Input
Amino acid sequence: MLLPPNQKLSSLDFRVAAWYVTGTTCGALGTGLAVWMLSGIGGLLPEIARAGVIAIGALFVWLCEQGPLSRWVSLPQARRQIPAEVFGGGLTRGAFRFGFELGTGVRTYVPSPTPYVLLLTIALGQLTLGCALCAALGFGVGRGLPIVVRLLSTNRESVAQAVLRGATIRMAPAATTCVVLAGALSLV
Amino acid sequence: MYRFGWAWLAPAVIVATGLLLHVPPLVAASIGLISGLSLSGSI
Output
C-alpha cells in the first residue's frame, strides 16, 4: 500500500499520490502513443470491417476473461506482480515508477476485458492522435484515481464500504465492456 | 480489494454525453477512464 491505512496523512503522502498518478498517466500515454503509431495497418480495412473486428474482439475478450472460454484461452498479459525493487530509489520515485509500470498496462496482470477493447480501438479505430492520447490519458487517470479518492476521503474505510454496495463481480465487467465497446464503435 | 462499486457509471454517463454531443475526444477519454478504473479494482 502506498498510503498508510488509518494514520493521519502527511505532505509526503500527497506527494506520493501525485507521483503515482503522474506515473500511471505517463505510462498510459507511452503505450497509447506506441499503439497509435502502429495503427496505420488498420487503414487497410474498410470502416465496417474495423468496427466488426473490434466488436467481435470485445466479445472474444469478454468470453476469455469472464465467460466460458476462460478455462481454455489465456489472453496475453504479464503474469507477475511489479517487483518491490521499484521502490529502491525512495518512496516518491518508487511511486512514480510503480505507477508508470501499472499505467503501461503490459507489466502486470490485466484482470479485466476493457483494456483489451481499448487497445483494439486505438489499434484499429483509425483514431486521430488527439483521441488516442485522450483515451490513454483517461486510462492513466483511471488507473491512478483510487489512490486520490483514498487521499481525499476523511473516512476511507466507510467510503470503501459504502461504494461497495451494489457491485457484483460478474456483472460489472460485462456492463463496462459494453459501455467501452459502444464508445469505441462510435469512434471508428 | 478496494472497489468503488458503481462508480463506473459516472464515466459511462460521460461516454453517453460525448456520443450525444459528438465529441470524440470526450468519448475516448471516458472509455479510457473506465478501462483504467476496471484495472484498479474500482469496478
In short: Chain A has a mean pLDDT of 84.
